[in-house]
Amino acid sequence: MFNIMIVDDEEEILELMEVYLRNDGYKVFKANNGTEALNIIHREKIHVAVLDIMMPGIDGLQVCMEIRKKYNIPIIMLSAKSQDMDKINGLSMGADDYMIKPFNPMELLARVKAQIRRYIYLNENIKQHEENDTVEIKGVSINKRNHKVHLYGNEIKLTPIEYEILLLLASEKGKIFNSEEIFKAIWKEKYFEGNNTVMVHIWRLREKIEENPKEPKIVETVWGVGYKIEE
Q1: Which of 223, 184, 221, 217 is nearest to 202 (CA)?
Q2: Per the database record, which ranges form the Response regulatory domain (predicted)?
Q3: What is the pLDDT of residues 117-146, one digit of tens each?
């Protein structure tokens, strides 16, 4: 059974999410503030966290940042705001997905399932029979068995999405991937023009592996086309 943590200061939304998630077979941990959410994260084994951004005290963005300091679990952010900046802020803090309130509970279930599929992929040894379990390029070493990434020997903590993007680009050295191709490969969803999700995650990845993210030498931009990692 997978454990889902839901965090929202609106009791009605918490109860609605809990009902749908429990009926779908998940064990649910509820919190109505950021402090309680962090206590749950440190106490329980959580597989997916669903965080509301706007909460009194410690808001969802701060909770997301704290979770990312120790854990690589998938995080879905909730917000009543539809502005691109709010979405970019959430993704920049390490969130993997973003939903706007009000939302269809069935869509939440679908997104939770999608994140769990990624969680399983990243945490189970599903590639035991591959001849080469390590991808190495430009000082970056990606271990596909334990999903650890090292930069010149030092371990780099990546989110599941960042890891998948890096592995995708590094596994096909020199190939240019546009944003739509990356989005479909990683999120397994339909891509819409103007979606800046890939751009935000690429920037976050560069902040962790590039000496100067503004002048990347590892994950290169091919202007007007997409992204690549050269030999």
Answers
A1: 221
A2: 3-116
A3: 877 776 664 444 444 678 888 889 999 888
